[in-house]
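Reopening this one. Same input as before:
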Amino acid sequence: MQPGTPLELKDHQARAVSRITQEMRGRCLLAHEMGLGKTLTSLAVVRHYGGPVLVVAPAGNRDLWAAEAEKCGVGPFQVFVRAPKDPGFAWPDFCIVAYELLIKDATLQRKKWNLLVCDEAHSIKNLRPSAKLSSKRSLRVLELAWTVPHLLLLTGTPQLSRAFELYPLLHAVSKGAFGTMHEFADRYAGGATDAAGRWAARGSTNLPELYARMQPYVDRILKKDVLDLPDKQRTKVFLELSPEDTALLAGMAAQLAALKAQASKSSWKSMEADAYLQQCYRESSTRKIPHILQWLGAVAKDGEPLVVFAHHHVVLDALEAYFRDAGLRYGRVDGTTTPKKRAEVIAALTSGELLYGVLSLTSCGTGITLSPFHYRVAFAELQWNPGMFLQAEDRVHRINTTRPVFIYYLIARGSLDDMMFGLLSAKSARNAAAVDDAPSSFVFT
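Same output, byte for byte:
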């Protein structure tokens, strides 16, 4: 690693680097809230330890890491989109790759890395007792994490939905100090086996104890503690469905409840209930579309910027058609958008060249910055994980935000939204208790 000019760290970043490199000996779950500069903090740790360094990030974040490393003069580095074909290829001492390449290329696992950095590390949460049921991403990261002397796991939302999601992160960074996954689940995550013999960990127990045990391995900073940012102002916008749609969705909800009542009796029944839940989710969102567009017609007339997040393509398509037909300056990014086009749209939204954004919650909830120009966000659809919403909100509520951020949750009465919003609130409270030992910040005006 070539020496460079000193990095310009804010006080909270400098304190974090000092703690990571001294007290934590280079193994840390870096859980600063979104928008506090975890990338720069990590590059300071990279410079401290030197190579070989492997940075693994979602594909959409790979170029952001390269840009930040180049800006800070940390390197030299190389970005790899795919594995070199030369069988004798030797990986350089500072590589930036996507998770998909780590999964596909075994030679990355064999190099003796000094430091492994995993961005958006909450994405390795899918660990199960059987390797067949665990995600390849989780398995590959955990295998490599145990072989490296220094490890940084970056996420502003270490727990998206339930306590067990913390286990892969804590298991990796502590090298097993939290026991087996069954031991962790039994103590902190309500581990249990149902009538069909399937093991699951969907609960949250002994959270104050878990919070205390986590502290030697976690560096957590909240924005409210280090930045004087304008407030987030969340509002629930209730949409009234037609009587016909309400009756249809009520019938589907009754059928879903009946399937769920049978789900614990067999794997087949559980799969049937899960499939029907997704059908209800899509139908509920589809029935919302006319009412979403009606709301947009009222708020998109004032010429003020607005970013709208959605999940289903049918909703994203309807939103795009609305902005296009109205002749408004908009851009769309979803999972099918090419990296080049994605970068162009995000840059245009950030600069104000485009006033309106139609963004996939899954594809754009992390890794982008839309502030300070954008300060209004709407969620056309709900989702199951409160952490995803916090991540998406903080695309505009960040270190350079200069005015209050207005956030709108569009909720259709009599739809699946009723159940989902209740779950979001309950999960958010459990997440805050485990990660911050504090009440939930997911509150509404």
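So the earlier flakiness isn't reproducible anymore. For the record, The mean pLDDT is 89.
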